[in-house]
Amino acid sequence: MSDWKDDIVHWARRNEGVWELWLLSQNVEATDALTIGVVLAPADGDHSRTLGDFSLLDARWRSELRAIARRQVRLEPMVPGYPGDTTIRSAGTCLWKRPA
Asked: Which of 18, 20, 67, 78 has a CA-to-CA distance to 51 between 20 and 30 Å?
């Protein structure tokens, strides 16, 4: 794993609200932008609140990840039962998953 991927995993470990990270971008070493799927811990089991929390944190997290990866970052929230979750899991690569 390249250094920036290790650093992104370290970032995820420090953010207790993040349960998984998925990389959607193809040929990541040759691109100037990344798309990362983020599985968030549901707030008291309420996924609608989780999406609200994501919208509040999105800009800050993208900024932090952009500094780590030294390229543009797009974040996609992954919520079980929502269409994006299935798409990301079938097309992406899991970078990290919080131990159960």
From this structure: 67
The pTM for the full model equals 0.83
What domains sit in the chain, N to C, each tagged with a CATH number?
3-97 (3.30.460)
Can you read off the two tokens belonging to residue 66? 């952009």
> With contact defined as beta carbons under 8 Å apart, do 18 and 61 qualify?
no
Distance CA 40, CA 20 (A): 7
Cα torsion at 68, 66, 5, 33 (round to 10°)? Answer: -150
pLDDT for 3-20, tens place per residue? 889 999 999 999 888 889
